Amino acid sequence: MNIIVAVDKNWGIGYQNKMLYNFKKDKEFFGEMTTNKVLVVGRITLEELLNNNPPKRRINICLTSKKNYKKEGAYIVNTLDELFEKLSFYNSDNVYVIGGESIYSQLLPYANVCYVIKVDDESECDAYFENLDKNKNWRVTKNTNPYFENNKVFYFCKYENSKPLKYNYGYEKEDLF
Questions:
Q1: What is the pTM of this model?
Q2: Would you say residue 177 has pLDDT above 60?
Q3: How does 36-75 read in b/e, with b if 16+ C-beta sit within 10 Å?
Q4: Three-class SS state of 94
Q5: Ramachandran bin of 129, using left for φ above 0, alpha for ψ from -120 to 50, beta for the remaining angles
Q6: Alpha-carbon distance 70 to 67, whole Å?
Q7: Would you state the torsion angle of the CA atoms of residues 68, 71, 75, 76, taken in this order, to the nearest 10 degrees?
Q8: Domain-by-domain residue ranges, the chain?
Q9: In CATH, what class is 2-161?
């Protein structure tokens, strides 16, 4: 399982259900990494950040505690057990968690890789991602040169988890589509 997240200097990820940053380079990276893959997203992120439109050319799974929630273009699951059961049909390398804060927090221990867009900026935040630099199980394995866009400097970092929790994936398919 993979995670994609953009953070500020304090590992902030959002304010009032809005993402902090909007970079063209980040959108390109997101598209390259997740097209024809499985996305795991929370309901608020789906509704607020994705404008109620599950990304096309992806298998979208929404984890929400809202019973009877429905969204065209997304599978809805209400528990981690249901999520893991749904994920059992896919290769874990093809699964990407894209937020929000609660979903990241619940699934971070199961992730093998975390792609972090680190922005050299401090923003007003009310949602945060765990600081992986302070977690002994995570280490940076790749770091890009800086990018400059929208008057901000940012880096793409790849973190790897030395002790991810396992869950039963069942069998793994080679191709999703």
A1: 0.91
A2: no
A3: ebbbbbbbbbbbbbbeeebbeebbbbbbbeeeeeebeebb
A4: helix
A5: beta
A6: 9
A7: -30
A8: 2-161
A9: alpha beta
Residue 74 has a pLDDT of: 92
Contact 146, 43 (CB under 8 A): no
Strand partners, 38: 59, 95
- Eight-state DSSP code of residue 165: P
100, two tokens: 């929000």
DSSP annotation of 122: -
For residue 38, give both structure tokens. Answer: 């499985």
Q: Are strands 138-143 and 18-19 parallel, antiparallel or unpaired?
A: unpaired
Residue labelled with tokens 């923003």? 123
Place of tokens 């273009």: 73
Q: What is the pLDDT of residues 10-31, one digit of tens each?
A: 999 999 999 999 999 999 999 9
Strands 113-119 and 152-161: antiparallel
